[in-house]
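Hello forum,

I keep getting stuck at the same step: I have a sequence, I want structure tokens, and every attempt I make locally crashes halfway through. Rather than fight my setup again tonight, could one of you with a working pipeline run this one for me? It's a single chain of 96 residues.
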Amino acid sequence: MGVSPIGEPSKFRVEIGELVLDGFRADPERVSAAFEHELTRLVRLHGVPLAAHGSLAVDALSGLPPLPAGLSARRLGQELARAVHEGLSGHGEVSR
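Reply #2:
Ran it on my machine without issues. Output:
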């Protein structure tokens, strides 16, 4: 993560090793594309509050809200990204 001249993080790197989607019938590639697009948008717009004071490594996010099984691939990716960003914003439980 880089830092801008005013002390704000200027670059984020988010690596997600695995997304497990039990009970969903959506196309995984479309879910992944929508997830990446929405998470990128949210990080650009809101940053990653848990990483405000430097680098952060998270093993797992839990305590996130359940998602309805009938969502389209695009909507599922978007909602999943929102849930992950909420976790990275300090909501839910973080395992480091």
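The first helix runs from residue 28 to 46. If your local run keeps crashing, start a new thread with the error log.
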